[in-house]
Amino acid sequence: MKFRRLKLVIALCQFCIIFGMKAACLFSPYNKLEQNNLMSGQYNIYYESSEPSIAFAAEDLKRILSEKNMSVSLLPLMEFSNNPNSVQIVIADNKSEVIGAMTEANGKVIKEMKAQDYALRVTGQGKNKTYWVIGGDRIGAMYGGIHLGEIVMSSGLDSMIDKDFSPYIAKRGLKFNIPLDSRTPSHDDRGTSAQSNIINMWDFNFWTTYLDELARQRFNVISLWSKHPFPSMIKLEEYPDVALNDIYDDTGKIKTMTIDEKIVLWQKVMDYADHRGIEFYIITWNIHMNGALGKYGITQSKENEITKDYQRKSVSKLLSTYPKLAGIGTTAGENMHGVNSDEKEEWLWETYGKGIQDVQNEQPDRKIRFIHRYWWTDFNKINSRFKQLKDGYDMSFKYGRARIYSAYNPQFAEKEFFPNIPKGVSTWWNLRNDDIYNLRWGDAEYVRKYILNLPKGERTAGYYMGSDRFVWARESISKNPTSPRILENEKHWFSFLLWGRMGYDPETSPELLKGLIGNRFPSVDSNDLYTAWQESSKVIPLINKFHWFSWDYLWWPEACIGSGVANAIDGYHNIYDFINAPVMDDSNLITIKNYVRAIIDQSKISGTTPLQVADMLELYGKEALSLTEKMNSYDNNELAETIGDIKAMAHLGNYYSAKIRGATNLKLYLVSNNEKYKTIAIGQLEESLKFWKLYSKILTEQYIKMNISMQGVFDWDKLEKEVKADIDLAKKA
C-alpha cells in the first residue's frame, strides 16, 4: 500500500514538472508519510548500555529514526569519538567523561543539574553534527532521550536547539484503583473495566508495556489503591492462612498462582519500574479486612487487638517484602463508622505508623514516604502522632473533588484545606477524573493552566490522577480491538501525555504536540485535528461547572446520570434536575433559577447566563464538527475512533446546549405562564433528542455497552427514552 502511494506521489510530481507547477506543493500534511520515507542517512547513537533507563531511551530513539527510513546504530558510549563521519547522538548523565568531549566540541556549558534535569546541545555542522543529551541523573538522561525522539517525530532532528529542562513538579503520578482479585478488591470492582483487568494485574508483560508508556508520558509515580491488598501481596508467618493463592474474579478462579509467585511478580514489576524512574506507592482505606476477615479472629473492629496486630505486621511485611516500594498511604475511613478523629488516628498510628517504624528499625537507611489523606479526620490528630516518623509524612487532598474536568483553578484547597494545614506540610493533589471514561479527551491549554495553578513550592509534594469508578489498564469496550486490547494510556495517549508531560514542562509547545499528532496520524491535517480535539474537549469542563455535582456517585456527564446512592439522583438527570441544579462555586456562572428570577424581576445580571453557556457549548461542537467533517482515516482504526470520539463529544455538547436552552425556557414558562416559552422549550428539547441520537450512533459504531461501578450499565439506547421523556415533561408542564 505504501509503495503504491509513493509511486502515485512520484507520478504527480512528474505531472507537476511537465506543467510547470511546483512539485513541493504536494508535500502537504497529508503526505508526511511519503516525506519520511524519502529521508535517509546514517545515525550513530552512543549511550551507556549498562544503564537500563538510558538504554530504554536509546532503543526508543533508534526505533523512531528507523521509522523515518534512517540507518541507525547503537554503540557503547566508550566508542564515541569527536571526529564524526556521520550524525552522532550521545545520551549520558552528567557524571560521564563524555562531557569533556562536548566541551572540546564547543558545546554550550551545562550548569549544575539535579535529579530529572537534562540539557540538549548541538555541536558541529551539516552531516557531521553531534546531538548531545546530558541528564542530571539516569532518569534525566532518559527523559532527554525521549524528548529527542519527540523532536524527531514532530519536526525533525535538525530543529533541536540548545536548551535546559527541569521538572516543574517533581512527582507526577497516577491514581490506579487496582483490581487484584475479587477477594481483595479496590474501592469498587464491579465495573467492566475492573473485572476485565483482574487477569492483567498478574501479567508481567502488561506492566512492562504500561510502565514504558508512562515513562514516555513523563509520569514517575503510580499509586495502587486497594481496600486491603495484603493477602494478595505478602505472607505472614504469624497469619499464614491469610495469604491467598490463585486469582479470582466475580465468576470464579481465572488463574493458578501461588503467593510466592505473586511476590516474585510484584518484586520484578517494581524493579522494572525503577528502571523507568517510576516509584510505586500503595494506598488503602480503613478498616477493611478483605481476604483476612474471619481468619484467626480478625474482624473490622478497631477494638480488636488481633486485627491491630495483624494490620501492623502486614504493613511491616509489605514494606520489607518490596524494597523498591517508595511508600504507603492510608485513609481514616471509609469504614470507621461511629469513631471520632482521635480514635481513628490512634488506630492508624498503632498499625501504619508503628509498622513503618518496625521496618526502619531493621533498615535504618530505608526511606519510606507516608501519605495521609485529608478525609474524615482532623489534621491536629494526624500531626500529633505521625510527626514521630523519621521521614515525616505528606498529606493528600482531593483538589477538584471528583471533577478534574471542571475548573482549572478550583478553590477547595484554599477554602477548606490550607486554613487547617501549616505551610511546611507538603501535599499530594488527588486529581480525580470521574468525568470521562469512554471518549478521548485532549485540551492542552486546559492542562497547562491547571498545572500552573497548582499550589507552588513546598506545599506540593506531587499529584496523582485517576478514577474511583474506572480502571485505567487495558481498554475493554472497543468493537474493533487489537489483540491483546490496547492499554488505556495508549488509547488515551494524548490526554495522558498532556497530564504527565505538562507536569514536567508546562511550557511544552503546541507545535511539538501538533507534530506528534501529525506523526501518529499522517493522513490528516494535524493543526485541524489538534484544534478539533481541543474544542470538543471544552464540553465536559463547562457542563460540569454549570451542572455541578461534585462527587463521582452524584453525576457522570458522559451519560447524564447519577447513581441513586445516598443523596444522588437515581439515573437520568431530567429537565427539572437541570432547572434546579447548582453551579460550581467561583465559576461566575448563573443558575437557571437565578437567571429566570432576574429576567422576571428585570434586575441586573452579573455573570455568564445559562443561554450563554448553551451558546458556548454549541460553538465548541460546531467548530469540532466542521474541522472533522471531511477527515478520512484511511483504514486507520485508531484515527477513525479518535475522530469518532471528537464528533461524539461535540454531539454531546450540542445535546447539553439544547437541553439547557429547553430547561431555561421551561422555567421561564413556569414562572411567567407565557406560552411562547413553553413552545420554545419543547422545540429545544426536540433538538436535544436529535443530538443524543447522533451521539448514540457513534457510540454504537465504536463501543460495547459497559458497566460502570455504582452507575450501572451505560445503555445509551435506553437513555434515549429518558431524553424523549424530557419533551413530554415540557408538554405536560
From the structure above, extract its key features.
733 residues, alpha/beta, Chitobiase, domain 2, TIM Barrel, 4 domains, six-stranded mixed β-sheet, 25 helices, globular, Glycosyl hydrolase family 67, signal, Hex-like_dom2, hydrolase, hydrolase activity
Could you explain how this protein is built, in words?
- It is globular and about 85 Å long.
- Helix 10 crosses helix 11 (341-362) and helix 23 packs antiparallel against helix 24.
- 45% of the residues lie in helices and 14% in strands.
- The strands form 5 sheets. An 8-stranded parallel beta barrel has the order 7-8-11-12-13-14-15-16. A 6-stranded mixed β-sheet has the order 2-1-3-5-4-6, with helices on both faces. Strands 9-10 form a two-stranded antiparallel sheet.
- With 733 residues, the chain is α/β, with parallel strands linked by helices.
- It has 4 domains: 1-28, no CATH class; 39-165, Chitobiase/beta-hexosaminidase domain 2-like (Chitobiase, domain 2, 2-Layer Sandwich); 178-508, TIM Barrel (Alpha-Beta Barrel), CATH 3.20.20; 534-732, no CATH class.
- A hairpin with a 3-residue loop joins strand 19 and strand 20 (712-713).
- The N and C termini lie far apart (60 Å).
- GO terms for molecular function: hydrolase activity.
- Keywords: Hydrolase, Signal.
- Residues 1-23 form the signal peptide.
- This is Glycosyl hydrolase family 67.
